[in-house]
Design goal:
The protein contains seven helices and nine strands. By secondary structure, the protein is α+β, with helices and mostly antiparallel strands.
């Protein structure tokens, strides 16, 4: 089985420039190819495949020489991701692929020789120095692929996909049913209520204040960029708190029960009609 290990890292000034270039090139390839595929389909109903997109990538690199300043592997992986996105759309598993924005989350993936893990250090293509990763645990093996990402709060993360042996937990005799709720995250069949931290409510006043400050700033100004960063950082904090609470709750359920039964509910409908 494969498992992804995600860590935060802190790039040097030189690496930050390289990552910014790579994010920009990946975003350009995605948007340019998406526009080409959409126009081609609207024109004569032709659906471009992976091989067509890769052949076109060669012409794009000749037309735009600055694409050669970053690893070609991440550009090829971007095309594969878009091909999979279209497959998910045609199979009705996802919405139509959308264009990527400069202000949104940025990411690219490296495979093969474009990424190297050696002696507890991770190297990426076009960079001589290893990434300053804050390792919270050791990788079980060299990763088969590495995904570099940057969120709107300007935090950098690396996700390493490794081959691992599934962990077998001790057998327990307890079985429980889980019912999702609104006032509580979940309620078990034996009456346990998990509670709901409601982190958005906790930080609502501070978030409203920062958003008011953002609205007062002139568009395109440095002060607006600083205010936007503060809002993004608070949103990231709320998301981290929610994710941590969810992981702890699900891990507790798995550790304490042999069988967990969950009723398929549409939580969004519950929110619309709480009665």
């Amino acid at each position: 089985a494969k498992r992804a290990y995600k860590f935060r890292f802190y790039p040097t000034d030189e690496q930050a420039v390289l990552l910014a270039q790579t994010f920009g090139c990946v975003r350009f390839i995605w948007n340019n190819t998406l526009a080409w595929r959409s126009e081609l389909y609207k024109k004569d109903g032709t659906s471009a495949g992976q091989s067509d997109a890769e052949k076109r990538l060669v012409n794009l690199k000749a037309e735009f020489p600055w694409l050669a300043e970053v690893s070609s592997v991440c550009l090829q992986q971007t095309l594969r991701d878009q091909t999979q996105a279209f497959k998910n759309f045609w199979d009705k598993r996802a919405a139509y692929p959308s264009f990527k924005k400069k202000g949104g989350r940025q990411a690219f993936r490296l495979v093969g020789n474009a990424q190297r893990y050696r002696d507890g250090q991770l190297f990426i293509a076009k960079s001589r120095e290893p990434l300053a990763v804050r390792w919270s645990q050791k990788l079980p093996c060299a990763p088969s692929s590495t995904t570099i990402s940057k969120d709107r709060a300007n935090r950098y993360f690396v996700s390493c996909l490794c081959e691992v042996e599934p962990e077998t937990l001790p057998v327990v005799s307890k079985t429980t049913g889980v019912d999702l709720g609104l006032t509580d995250l979940f309620i078990t069949s034996d009456g346990f209520k998990s509670g709901n931290p409601r982190y958005m409510k906790k930080y609502a006043a501070k978030l409203a204040f920062l958003q008011r400050q953002l609205a007062k700033k002139a568009k395109g100004s440095q002060n607006r960029a600083k205010a936007r960063f503060k809002v993004a950082r608070l949103h990231a904090k709320i998301a981290d708190c929610r994710r941590d609470a969810t992981h702890k709750a699900t891990r507790t359920l798995i550790n304490e029960n042999q069988v967990v039964c969950v009723e398929p509910l549409a939580v969004k409908n519950m929110i619309k009609h709480p009665t």
